[in-house]
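User: what does the whole thing look like in 3D?
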Amino acid sequence: MRLSKRTDYGLRAIVQLAKLWPTQYVQSRDLSKQENLPNKFLESILLALRRGGFLESKVGSGGGYRLSRAPRDISVGDVIRRLEGRLSARDTETQKEPSPGEIAVRLVNTRLTEATDKVLDAMTLEELLEEVGKQSGSQQEMYYI
Amino acid sequence: MRLSKRTDYGLRAIVQLAKLWPTQYVQSRDLSKQENLPNKFLESILLALRRGGFLESKVGSGGGYRLSRAPRDISVGDVIRRLEGRLSARDTETQKEPSPGEIAVRLVNTRLTEATDKVLDAMTLEELLEEVGKQSGSQQEMYYI
DNA sequence: CAAAAGCCTACTAATCCGATAGGGAGAATA
DNA sequence: TATTCTCCCTATCGGATTAGTAGGCTTTTG
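Assistant: Here's the predicted 3D structure for the full assembly of 290 residues, as structure tokens:
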């Protein structure tokens, strides 16, 4: 189970935006510098996040992106499902009676989806930020002591 | 979260073998017919499953494959991890201090892996077979009434 | 020996992913 | 008005990965 780069980058960007919330707009170029991401690729991801209702944007000088609501009101699951294109895409319509193997695979897939959804839906950006704070805090102690 | 075709096919084949256990050996050709899978592709998958210790094989006339132990002693998680090549491949060694975004992504990944492992490790082939039995049973009633 | 089956290697085809290029269009600022 | 700044949008490309094929070797059974 691996997240695509697209999702990876999107998460990293939205985490940065959550850190800065509710400050002024942040430009995509700055975001890509902060997390060291390919500029143009990130742009398309931010656009998807905006369309998904997670971000607000402002064009022109002084414009950029910011969260559309508080980090506690944004679910990581929602964000990831928006970014991850490959979700239960084709069901091939099952015109014929499914074989035992097909039923089994479908069952496994269902359980997996349920489990991941449950985990991801339980996480908000706020909680994610807290955890990151703890982690990077203890990290830095190791360096600064 | 999508399983690869390789994993899909492998599961379907091993479910068939579990249904027939502990009968005599089943040929890969018959398996590919039963589940309608590409013959040669399936062969390589069965080989991987044998190397993983899930199957026993017998060469020559009258040979084939069968489970190496009871369905209740084979975990679906083990099977899938064996078939799915792409598991936590590169960790890129993180030479530099990770950014907040990277920490967040790592955290999400950890939680996802934990959740999926938990679900898959809790399933055995036996349990899977039971569920399939229920499903296809109720399916068939709809057709035969 | 001949047939049956697994075993093994190499190759090709198709798909998807990550990334880039090149420009609009509209808002702020001078 | 002109200029700059930023998001917005489309198209395309290269490479990696996945899916599938071909062909033959080896071992067992009859």
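In plain terms: The first strand of chain B starts at residue 55 and ends at 58. Chain B touches chain A through 47 residues (CB under 8 Å).
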